[in-house]
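hi! just following up on the protien thing from before. the input was this:
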Amino acid sequence: MLIMGCGRVGAHLASLLEADGHEITVLDIDASSFARLPHTFRGNALLGDGTDEDSLKRAGIEEMKAFVALTAADNTNIMAAQIARKVFNVSKVVCRIYDPTREGLYRELGLETICPTALVAEAVRTRL
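and the predicted 3d structure came back as:
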């Protein structure tokens, strides 16, 4: 599996998936972000841009069964998810989108999306 973005969520997801027995590659444009990975992480941590086809090829996307776009930038996540699906034919692509309005639009266009903004707002709403 290939995770683009090694922020808190990306690093935690990499750890969880590795514990489940998956081989994980994490791709990020900032080398210091890999410090978030646990010291026990055995996967690959590669410096690169997930919207760049050469970076994705170096990360092994052509053999990946899943791609997750988890950067802090909606446009980057959307673009990378589309490249993974359309150019590299990755079968399972998940994209984080913060803007709830855009998330709905991209879901309608066929992207599998997760919107933390909407999830948190709904969780708070149910507790109130």
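The two ends are 38 Å apart (CA to CA).
The chain has a mean pLDDT of 95.
cheers
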